[in-house]
Amino acid sequence: MKIERAALLVALALGLFAAPLAAEAQPTGKVYRIGYLSPTTPPRALNPAFDAFLSGLREHGLVEGRNVVIELRFADNKGPERVRELAAELVAMKVDVIVTVSTSVALETKKVTATLPVVMAVSTDPVGGGVVQSLARPGGNVTGLSLTGPALTAKRMEFLKEVAPHLARIVIVTPSEVAVYRLFLQEAESAAPALGINEVRLANIGYDPARWDEVFEAIGRRPGAGLLVGDSPGFEREGARMAALALKHKLPTAYGMKAPVEAGGLIFYGAVVTDLFRRAAGLVSKVLMGAKPADLPVEEPTKFELVINLKTAKALGLTIPPSILLRADQVLE
Predict the structure, then answer these.
(1) Cβ contacts of residue 230 below 8 Å, gap of 6+?
(2) Taking the CA atoms of the chain, what radius of gyration do you get in angstroms?
(3) Which domain range does residue 75 map to?
(4) pLDDT tier at 45 (50, 70, 90 boundaries)?
(5) Does the N terminus or the C terminus of the chain have fewer Cβ atoms within 10 A?
(6) Alpha helices, H only, 26-47
């Protein structure tokens, strides 16, 4: 009898410990509705980042078509007003949480709702962009992941200078005047003297590829210019065109996105985006279980990769140092 009672107590104890874990890993029978808002157009093919997000949801017991419905919305690069319209649409549908792609989308969504939870799958300087109060204590209704890590811009400049020692000027190409890109400028200006860079400036080229050729040509007229391309889903979407223009105007370029380098760009160094989207799913799970975004710190990237395109380097007349090749996670030939 004592053995049976002891076994019962053990079973009850195990049950008490297991219950919270099960509740966290496998939500209740409720069907959750997740809004997913991107500034770009729908992808033409497989979307590894979105697939990583879905995989991350499954890790937390959230399965699309079973206990999750995802409302996809794409602003087709039509600017802030369209983003706000779509955000308002999702709010009216009473989704449980909105997942945003880019800092600007998070900012516009925050203008629409100050109460509905928002999780940034990726963002660039959310503090400087006015989305959160601080990384550790976001405040408000927004949390998520940041694309920027310690000295990331400086590291891109360092790689670019090693590959193209003749560089004396750096132009940071951005899609808009959004405040988040000021962080890139500040980091670049701080790193410039030690790298022998005499000039650093921002160039807002917008989202319309039709005017990019003219801008790139103007930048390339003066010798010694190199480009840093700011993180932007819109730029990633037109990565092949941007890479072709950089090559056409003989501009060594380091990108904050991998796709342009796979399409012919020179260097990518940055966060592993699929890892950020997977981790964003974990924050979504916490929010759905009752956590408040204000109490969930904005997380920084922990995984980075360096990709070098050898074919592009040769076309630009550049020789990649062995030290760079050894550090590269991927070399495209």
Answers:
(1) 124, 172, 173, 174, 175, 181, 184, 256
(2) 23
(3) 28-146+273-295
(4) low
(5) N
(6) none
Let me know whether 213 and 327 are in one domain: yes
Residue 50, phi then psi, degrees to nearest 5? -65, -40
Q: Poorest-confidence range of 63-77, 219-233, 261-275?
A: 219-233
Is the pLDDT assigned to residue 18 strictly greater than 60?
no
Q: CA separation (Å) from 133 to 25, 102, 140, 239, 295?
A: 30, 17, 8, 32, 12
Cα(307)–Cα(283) distance, integer angstroms: 29
Asked if 208 and 230 sit in the same domain, the reply is yes
Q: Which residue is associated with the tokens 């900012």? A: 107
Claim to verify: residue 187 and residue 312 sit in the same structural domain: yes
Residue 14, in any domain of the structure: no
Q: Which residues contact 215 (CB under 8 A, 6 or more apart)?
A: 203, 205
Q: Is the pLDDT of residue 56 over 50?
A: yes
Report residue 253 as tokens.
């370029």
Count of CB atoms situated within 10 Å of the CB of 176: 17
Rounded average pLDDT over 30-40: 95
Q: Quick one: 326 and 209 in the same domain?
A: yes
User: Is the predicted pLDDT of residue 230 greater than 80, yes or no?
Assistant: no
pLDDT, mean of residues 325-329? 95
H-type helices in the chain, by residue range? 2-25, 48-59, 80-92, 103-112, 152-163, 181-195, 212-221, 233-237, 239-248, 259-262, 273-288, 310-315, 322-327
* Apex 88 CA angle, 126 and 104, nearest 5: 20
SS3 323: helix
Local structure of residue 299 (DSSP, 8 states)? B
Same domain, 106 and 210: no
Instruction: Specify whether 47 is located in the same domain as 113.
Output: yes
Q: How far is CA 324 from CA 18, 163, 258, 310, in A?
A: 48, 8, 17, 11
Within-domain flag for 15: no
Do 266 and 279 belong to one domain?
Answer: no
Is 54 domain-assigned? yes
Q: Using CA of residue 314, residue 320, residue 322, residue 326, what is the dihedral sign?
A: negative
| 158 belongs to a structural domain | yes
